[in-house]
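Assemble and predict.
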Amino acid sequence: MKVGGSLSIWLFIGISLLVNGALILASGIYELIHPPAFPVVLYELHASIWWGALLFAAGAFYCVRFSPGRMKAGQ
Amino acid sequence: MTLALALIAAPSLVHLSTVDLAIIVFYFALVLAIGLYLKGQANTGEDFFMAGREMTAWVAGLAFLSANLGSLELMGWAGNAYKYGILAAHWYWVGAIPAMLFLALVMMPFYHICKTHSVPGYLKLRFGPGSQALSSISFAFMTVLMSGINMYAMAVVMRVVLGWDIHFSIWVSSITVAVYVALGGLRSAIFNEVLQFFLIWAGALLIPILGLIEAGGWSGLQAKILQNLTAQNVANPGAYTHLWSTLGDFSKNPMGINWVGIVFGLGAVISMGYWTTDFLVVQRVLSAKDLRSAKLAPIIGAAFKMAVPFIVILPGLLGLALLRDPHTGTLLRLVPGDLAWSDTGRAQGLHSFDEVLPLMLARYCGPGLLGLGITALIAGFMSGMAGNVSAFATVWTYDIYGALINKNASDELKVKMGRWCTLIGVAVSIGTAYLVMQAQSIMDYVQALFSFFIAPLFGTVLLGMLWKRATPAGGFWGLFAGTLSSIGMYAWAKADPSAVEYVALSPHAQDQAQNMFRALWCWLICVGVTFVVSMLSKPKPDAELTGLVYGLTPIPPEPPVSIFLRPGFWGVLVAIAFFILQIIFW
């Protein structure tokens, strides 16, 4: 739904997921290259990488799907 | 003030990296940006207090759930799961789902059709100004007091978990909430609640996933809990992973409760009272754009509520199974908060039940993920607080100021009053937080005080909606007697602990069990008094009850939409899923 102006509520969700996903993914890749001295439990699963990637992908989808330009075109 | 300045030298449970801090700062920036963006969208009373009544079912439903998902809810119930086992899941299933479906399919049409701004507003239409004044004054004050208590408790947790200064946590989080709610009203609160809902799931979902991998699935988790609790000589170790099978006897489960307390006290009274009459959550649904959306919203909320134990209860159980002292490798046993946070407890390195979720977070989450998890906790706190202050502003403006002080207030004045009330509500909350800091026993009394009003209010609203013979005098005196009896039972048990045996039917009853039975009795008293007084007093004519009471309210027929868009269809699906869960975890 829209909340006034031309921005959808879901666009903000997308921005949040996109930025957080990017930060977590980048952090996970850095840890992969430079393994920590005291790793967390199940470090070998590299949750930061796949969870960050998942959030990034979901955020990108929301940002594109609910971008102001696309919403205007759909009206 | 920067975050770096707020970090104090005290030892903390987790240590945040730069990327973690970046995630937290980004969250604060985003919620403030949303408030600023919506500033121009809250110019009328309907806009500011009801979000223009234009929310879709999804938005209203997610906000409905998110307003309840405070951080204390997350950490507190994870702690309760550690303390009581899977019995804590009753508060998410039988203690929520039936009530949410009841709200959606039975009560929502009345709230929606009468176009009330609040639950006390409905009571005014149905029972007159006496009931409205009683419920609105108690709700308004208890809401901001509770908000302050939650704020204090959250700040304590932030100090323990992150080592943050307690004043910093209180001021930064509350000023942020005050700004975005005062700017954009309910629309801004709802909007942020939806954002917070996503962040809570994104930040907390990894814990149960990784925890189950480590424990070897559900069966591995059960076996480890049984093994650990048996080794620690805990009574009834098998009861920690069974939902119903140990509820035949008060002494056979860690909560000291039986199925009567859970089904009738929790399921039929407390949860019904909370989910159907607590304006904090109901306000979100009242913002729905039409009746179908208003009915669908609680059903959507119920579907997600059913999944919340996965991110709240499961981490508590995983803590029972997996948490070990990192230095000695021995099993870690968490203790009550007052012991853990005392000087002795801190010196011994003890952790409280409520720390189980942050402990699990620190166990699995490295840089970035940790920041997101902490953001989830902060987001939970802020969504709960925003819910409190926006509900307070509405009830104060419409049901106290507009009904008792200035009956001719213009719409413009009400919006202005709403903005000021938001700021005042936050200020009172901060004051309460500092009051509790000086005398922590206040916390117990205010929490109990809040619970006094919920159960009887449900009795009054329910009879008002379903029984046309209920009279204004009956409604008022029923509510009054129910509330008074609840206070009386609480005081009796405080003054004479042996009274627990009579109030909660068992000397084994723990705090939660006492709450369940007290609620059940005071609800029955409310209903009984309402019935008797109504039969002795003159009823309102039918014409005055149209739109307010079952049988006298023409419910608009369902529009000819696909079955997949009908609330009844989704309500049945949610109910089936609810029963399946009870059987799986029986």
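Chain A has one domain: 9-74.
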